[in-house]
Amino acid sequence: MARKDTILRLHKHLLSRRESLLTSLKLEIEDLSELPDLATGDSADAASDAAHHAVSSQIAELESRELIKIERALQQIRRGKYGVCESCEKKIPLARLNALPYTTLCVTCQRDEEDYGSRGEEEAGGWDKVYEIERSQRDEHLRLSDIELDLSSSGR
What we know:
Elements: H1 2-33, H2 43-79, H3 94-99, H4 107-116, H5 127-135
Helix pairs in contact: 1-2, 2-5
């Protein structure tokens, strides 16, 4: 029962973080869409504006990647597969989930992925994914009874 309670708490945390990222990304996108008036100011102002836009773009890229990972974890919760490694299908320890709630891999499989390759382009941080995630916010209310877990002994 403790695992279900932890997953329910992590679900709330993931929803909160997703909302925070969406708000932040909206502001970043608005900021990036505002082109500076190149007719005013000197070259130092233009360089400063360009540097600001570059940093804002990089922050937005990182946030969009985290948002995609959070959405994947929320989908796993809805499917009853949260906390199970997508690669080896063993249970991910609660300590890892508490530290990195959007993880979908155990430590061993994460290391293997980092050492030997990635799982594809789905975490590349495409902007179209951000808009899809924003439109798919329909899992706001999750009850403990909604969570189905495989409690077999095949996991850790």
